[in-house]
């Protein structure tokens, strides 16, 4: 399935090809992002790394680290 | 995945594996911060506290937290901000802070490098680069900002300066100082900084000391505090950034390394402080502020930059 992910730190949206029933933690692994660096938001709500993703979901990875 | 204490959906999994919903996450975070304040004697009843704010989420969240916590003693709380003069960065960050303080009716004191030292950080960095002084922007910024905050905290009669430093910040600083072989600087860390008390120092305290950066970001979002991502233009020249990414990578392989680093450091801290407690604190012969050497670091820096300002026909200020 194709999933659109907005990565706040890069200020860009990426489209990823993930397996059905992938979780946020799988998505982070694909992107090479550490769990402690982002707050995952699915359809406007903060979720944990165990959250399952569907194709139509809107995912945002908010940056935990401050910029300076 | 549901919360361990109710049927609501979890937003966070703690290091010990507890799933927490929005409400129970807030409770978990607040309990941890209040316990840090009490256990380490960070803020005593009736004490005047100045929150050092950058306009970023950590310090704004701390300000909001303490404003709620000190609801019966609000006259004892205020915010201080320093405008270093980083074009396109600090001006934007401070706009958000001014708005937040106005909306919540929190007194905010703002001081600038330009007004107090006669140059902006942008100018100091340019001078350092053009004349190969090899002074890192983060060093100039850190030393001069801490100096202004300390001077004005004392002048405004605040005994404590609270900063938004969290467990991630502390674990990075500990590792940086270990790797640099700098035990004297390590001895100054901890939830309550400083080895020697001196009337010229406003003690710095860190209520978010045991909270990870991820936890304080979630707490900020759940409390409606804006979490932006504007990067400081000098951030790329920062050694801390390398250490931060290294620790985050390590933490994803071995969860809890940052907690381990900080907790083990706290066991060693009393020994380090005993070792360095005999260091004498005198007065800087230029500005009169507390200093371990004859001249404090802030004055040393300003003395290095001053001749180049005069070359450009600029006036070097000493208003603080």
Describe the structure.
The complex is a heterodimer of chains A (68) and B (320). Chain A is mainly beta and 68 residues long. Chain A has a five-stranded mixed beta sheet with strand order 2-1-5-3-4, with no helix packed on it. Chain A contains one helix and five strands, in the order ββαβββ. The N and C termini of chain A lie far apart (36 Å). Chain A has one domain: Roll (Ubiquitin-like (UB roll)). The radius of gyration of chain A is 11 Å and the shape is globular. By secondary structure, chain B is of the alpha/beta class. In chain B, helix 2 packs across helix 9, helix 7 (167-180) crosses helix 10 and helix 7 (167-180) packs across helix 11. Chain B is globular, with a radius of gyration of 20 Å. The termini of chain B are far apart. The chains are: A mainly beta (68), B alpha/beta (320). Chain A binds chain B through residues 8-9, 11, 34-39, 45-51, 62-68, and chain B through 1, 9-13, 19, 22, 54, 56-58, 89, 168, 212-214, 217-218, 221-222, 227-232, 234-235, 244, 248-249, 251-252, 258.
Outline the secondary-structure elements.
The complex is a heterodimer of chains A (68) and B (320).
Chain A: E1 2-7, E2 12-17, H1 24-31, E3 38-42, E4 45-46, E5 58-63
Chain B: E1 12-13, E2 19-20, H1 22-39, E3 49-53, H2 57-69, E4 77-83, H3 90-104, E5 108-112, H4 113-117, H5 121-130, H6 137-155, E6 160-162, H7 167-180, H8 183-186, E7 203-205, H9 213-222, H10 239-253, H11 257-276, E8 282-283, E9 290-291, H12 297-311
Parallel strand pairs in B: 3-4, 3-6, 4-5, 6-7
Antiparallel strand pairs in B: 1-2, 8-9
Helix pairs in contact in B: 1-9, 2-9, 7-10, 7-11
